[in-house]
Amino acid sequence: MIIVLKPNATKKQIDHLIERIKALGLKPMVSKGTERTIIGVIGSEDVLRVQPLEVIPGVEKVMPVLKPYKLVSREFKPEPSVVSAGGVKIGTKEIVIMAGPCSVENRQMLHDTAKAVKQAGARILRGGAFKPRTSPYSFQGLGEEGLKFLREVGKQIGMPVVTELMDARDIPLLEQYADIMQIGARNMQNFDLLKEVGQSRKPVLLKRGLSATITEFLLAAEYILSQGNFNVILCERGIRTFEDQTRFTLDLNAVPVIKKLSHLPVIVDPSHGTGSWDFVGPMAKAAVAAGADGLMIEVHPNPEVALSDGPQSLLPKTFTELVKELRKVAVAVGRTI
Ligand code: PEP
Ligand code: MN
Fold first, then answer.
1. Residue 169: CB partners within 8 Å, gap ≥ 6?
2. Residues of CATH 3.20.20.70 domain(s) within the chain?
């Protein structure tokens, strides 16, 4: 249930309403917009049948939420959300590019890649320290050492960092070393992990599951918001279909669809979405044209020897050329990079 307050509702009226909601054993989640305040009510709404809230002063209307998610919905927050990570804002007119290697392999390669992508125009450095690999025999990431390299290099080059979290026990480490905690596609429905990052206030980059519908994706985000962490960025990274020419099928429909349904910023990862470096550019451009708020792109100084995802990694030079092209597309759709 969503309660829309009158534009002139006073603070006293809003506080009173919040008290009433709590007294009914429900949880109020307040969204203060520029025009008016909206309160999302969480919990079993049956009680509201006998205790109507419409009669409380300051309330304009009480709307049932027909969709399964509330806090991520546009009904709850009509204005787009902006997530701030290490001084970079995601969800504004500026399209934010996150770039870097799939895995942090060593300090030197991370440094060289960071320097090149920053120079090209990327704002956030990516790199995995905990890697979700299909085979247990593949490189699993450097763990805490990788996080330290990320933090050091990020500081040196002047870039906030995003890295994947796979285990809730590592949240304190990521709180210390990262600016954005990434929840990978394979963990999108790890509901306990989602609840745990919901308890943190660190921004979360939530990637769409390999076979998740958009509704399931938004419900996964709802898990995080329902715990009080509203700093969520969604990432379309391709889904499993019958098509086998590409690693996944990048569902760019998701961008306008999510923009319509939700206030959360949406970025696109054409690297995992295609699996081949030569398809990354065209799909990155298409993502910008489709209205994405950002991109996540894998870049490696020598993809041939990459410990993970070499075939989909761009060389720094190719990435630099791509950003120049992306700037033109951004301008054409009224954005900047
Ligand atoms: C990644 O970004 O390195 C990654 C593993 O992505 P995904 O979870 O989308 O496969
Ligand atoms: Mn990767």
1. none
2. 83-332
